[in-house]
Specification:
two-stranded antiparallel sheet, Rossmann fold, 7 strands, alpha/beta, 40% helix, 5-stranded parallel sheet
């Protein structure tokens, strides 16, 4: 890191997954802010985080709603979608929203490397 801590918004409804990702991201130098729903994620977009790690299946709807808001509002937030969804049509729609990265669960070392690369650009 370049001396300043970057802010990551982690939107994930599974508590075990969220806890694990928070620990890993914190060890990588991120300041992690958590949300477990669309409503919480939307509320934590102000101030805009440097990066958003986004699950698509949330208890109050589809996570891409947050990605749409980030893009519509022109927020300077890089977005990484991390999903277990395998539906090609839905993944195609998500790709059309231009996330910076679209990763499949479970997150592996390559996925973590792509998130770390975003930190360098933040």
């Amino acid at each position: 890191m370049n001396g300043q801590q970057h802010r990551m918004l982690l939107v994930e409804d599974d508590q075990d997954t969220r806890n694990l990702l928070r620990r890993i991201l914190t060890l990588c130098g991120w300041e992690v802010v958590e949300a477990c729903s669309i409503a919480e994620g939307m509320a934590r977009l102000d101030p805009p985080p440097d990066c958003l790690l986004l699950d698509l299946q949330l208890p109050d709807g589809d996570g891409e709603e947050i990605l749409r808001k980030v893009r519509a509002d022109g927020l300077p937030t890089r977005v990484v979608v991390n999903t277990g969804i395998g539906d090609p049509a839905r993944l195609g729609e998500v790709a059309g929203l231009h996330p910076d990265s679209l990763l499949r669960k479970p997150l592996d070392s390559q996925g973590l490397k792509s998130i770390s690369a975003l930190e360098d650009r933040a």
